[in-house]
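Q: Entry one of two.
A:
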Amino acid sequence: MLEMLYTALVSPFLKDGTLDRQGFVCLVRRLYRQGLRGFLVGGTTGEGPNLSIEEKIWMAKTLHQQFEDVSVMIGVGSNHTGHTLEEIMQLNEIEGIDAYLCVTPYYIKPSQNGLYAHFLACDAISCRPIILYNVPARTGVRLSVELIERLLENTERIVGLKQCGRDEQLIFKLKKTHPDFVIYSGDDHRLLQDLYLGADGAISVVSQLIGPEVLRLLNDFKTGQNLEPLDDYIKMIAKYCFMEASPAPTKYLLSRLGLIENVLRLPLVPVSEETAACLDQIKLE
């Protein structure tokens, strides 16, 4: 059962660059107490390309073992289809994973037919539901409505989409023709707009800072309450969280709360002093 909200978790590191296992548990325990039950590990916010498969597996297993009623999504994929398939096959052997978030191959800009063949191969090897990850700003390619519909006609495991970027027709058209296809808003600053277009939920970065507020927006959307003030607050936090390359600002804010160290793996680095001064203006609890 997929959750309406998945928090795109950062991957905490110690000063020596190793995975901060205690910090990871501390962060998730805080979010769990706030009512969050869906967690994504190894995504963009989790510095997925800089994680080993063993680190991803440890985080997924730890979530499942320590918090039995959570749903765990794990980020997979690269610009090498063979490597992507190897990763999925390794993760297929691990218990406690509910879905794969599979990013479009980046940098090499495959055609729509190339993307189709790539995801067809992923579907054939996976034993779990697959959420497509459409993020053109980072990968240089986009999934079209026609391609997604073609995949839905010819695959068994592809059940949803994380949509990033301004493509309003994509969400609207897909929900109109495939109402059971799950669409997650992947941009915190567009969450409310995407919900109006038909999105079912969110894969959110800022929810690890303001989880209750994001969860409340998603729940209150169903009842049609006045959502603009809450949406404005989420947009404001999102603006700060993307002042520099993500997840650097988010990690800085989490370190200020005393939850993790302000450490990233190269080529990502901590925020500049100027950005840190701006982030210090945010009041978080």
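Q: Entry two of two.
A:
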Amino acid sequence: MPSTVIQWFPGHMAKTRRLIKENLSQVDIVIEILDARIPYSSRNPEIGTLCASKPILTVLNKCALSDPAVNDRWQAYFRQNGRNPLFIDCKTGRGIDRIGGEIRRILAEKIERYKEKGMAGKRLRAMIVGIPNVGKSTLINRISGSAKAKAEDRPGVTTGKQWVATAIGVDLLDTPGVLWPKFEDRTVGLNLAAVGSIADRILDTEEIAVSLCGKLKEIAPEKLALRYKLDASSLPGLTDHEAFEAIARKRGLFLRGGEIDTERAAAMILDEFRGAKIGCISLESPEDGEARNA
């Protein structure tokens, strides 16, 4: 992968880590948001260590874009490993109304202690953490019912901490997205790039799209073939780049002289995957070898 994908603004990330450490004592719980399509790759491994002193609610956003059957397997996997998973979708609103109840369930003992001290109804505080473009600010706006947190469909919009009061009795602290300074696992970088957690302007989008085509022809050949009118039985015999070129030809993406317009083809494939136009697809499942330590 290009070095721009491997290296990711280490100074900015160090600042975010400090922000998390400095404010952790002010919250009762951490809400960690993952991308439901890539639960393993979208989890910064530092979060578990940084937030070890607090209970964590693992919220898997964008579940309307991921495979429902794979979502079920992830939910079972997380629960078996002592995690508190909740699948939501900020755009459709699915699962949002369950967040308050899940927080109170996890913090039941602490809430009871508040009551014993005559502090019944004390507002709870939660810190929201996650990688860029995973939906932190959108979730806050959903819960608060207004656009109090900056939210755009591109990474890196939130740059400082923001406290937001909500109607569910929980004050939320938004933090900037936390990616690690470098990716030691190339697959993690490719998955993050495929779902848009790394800005396209700093990537070789053709390489990302070719890699995505290779992944899709393995895990969702029927959906890929249906979307682009390909022969599903022929996909296993194609290289990743041949699959990419076959899609470009089917869509008539050519430059003058008949050469394939790889830039337009890459942008189209990435856009259609991210919008679930190819289908609801999960790039990772608990059965993947990569996910065994998630």
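A: Comment on entry two: Residues 204-293 form a domain with the Conserved Hypothetical Protein Ylqf; Chain: A; domain 2 fold (CATH 1.10.1580.10). The longest helix spans residues 205-219.
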